[in-house]
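Lecture 7, part 2: worked example. A protein chain together with zinc ion.
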Amino acid sequence: MKLYDTPPIAGIYGRVSDNRKGKSASVPQQLSAGETVSQDEGWNLTYRLEGDDGRAASRFSTDKREDWDRLIELTTNAEVQIWILWECSRGSRRPVEWLTFLDLCRENEIVIYVISHERSYDPRIPRDWKILANEGIDAAYEVEMTSKRVGRDKADRAISGIPDGAWPQGYERIYDPKTKALLEQRPSAYAPVIKEIFDQIEQLIPLSRIEEDFATRGILSESGARFRRTSILQTARNPVYMGKRFYKGVMYDGQWEPIIPPAQWYTVNKILDDPKRKTTRPGRRRHLLTYWMTCGVCGETVQRLDRSKRQQRPTYACPPRCVASNQEWVDDYVRDLILEWVGQPEQYRKLTTPKAEGVILAVEGELEALKAEMDQYYALAKQRRLSPVGLAEMEEVYLPQIEAAKERLQDLTTPPPLRALVQPGRELRECWDDMDVPQRHAIVTWLFKGMSLLPSEHKGKHTSFDWRRLKYEWAH
Ligand SMILES: [Zn+2]
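Predicted complex, written out as structure tokens:
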């Protein structure tokens, strides 16, 4: 459990259950369980949100959306440090919303305590994140299974690729004027904005900066609202844009034209899945190597010292000051190492040659087939025709293969950190100079396993950087 200096601010999100026999608890019961946990743990329970499960006019809440929106708002503003949920299915039943919520918690370092599990999860820990993500998807799956009529209908629509559910921005739906039947879903004039969101995330531009950029340029959501980080995130998470639809943990092909190529969609979602993404936010990183490059003597990471009496220029130094060196010299040297590596003719060709679309489609097809097979075992387990042990065994067989296929899909495209650097027809140096520090740092961490600075062997004034002081290990 995370340690806090003062009692952390906690919030509980209670939600009425519908059709799960034996496991349901009323909202007051959930809230009181939350109170007990907070007392036991010494948390300051400040927010009590009472969601509702689609029953209009509930006595607990007038509008179920209000409380979910409030939950997202408090999470976005990091006004709580711990969210208490009865069980994961009391979060959102929509995977896109649930994953967005998890992303926000991770970014804002918010811990999630699940009462039914009697434990906390830290979404920044990949294993915890995975458990929560899976639980959310299982919950969604269960809803589909239990509401059979609706479920069957939805399943039919999903499998046959008919657009369903909320209308996604960037698409327009064409209806038959007489029968009102849906004829087609096709990209609208707004589609380029959607494309830009994916392009920017792929360039490792932080969501907060995309939000700012859109606000500055007056780009609104298609419904005319300000484009906030949460909706940017939801957009990027939605497979509708690669012409697919997510249903019961499986992707189905949609009968509509994609706005984003699948390989780009997967790349962007992998970037969003990366817990390290947080470190590349602007404002947090203003220098290329601070808190990453280590001191070759004490092993601590270096900091950046501004001009001081002794140091005439900005300097990298470890806290005990065993090492110190002119920041500009080190940065320039590291830049030259990178440009030299990328600029090797063979390397450069490899990075700039587009891979055959067919190969990408083949790997993507394989990935989806594996996921579909795994999903069949989940379905059997739900029907109690496969034991939990049997299911675990199938997971052992399939999950590593699914991971491997995902990674292969990544390898077929230029590594995201390098995309801003390797632009056909432009000089590497020019691209580098145009990049910002977080983008450059992303290249450094992708290309090097580690880097350390050794003390200078000569006392007195230096006129240039002694390259022998820099030790590094390539990652590729
Ligand atoms: Zn040191």
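Confidence is low (pLDDT under 50) at residues 17-23, 53-63, 279-283. The radius of gyration is 25 Å. Keep this in mind for problem set question 3.
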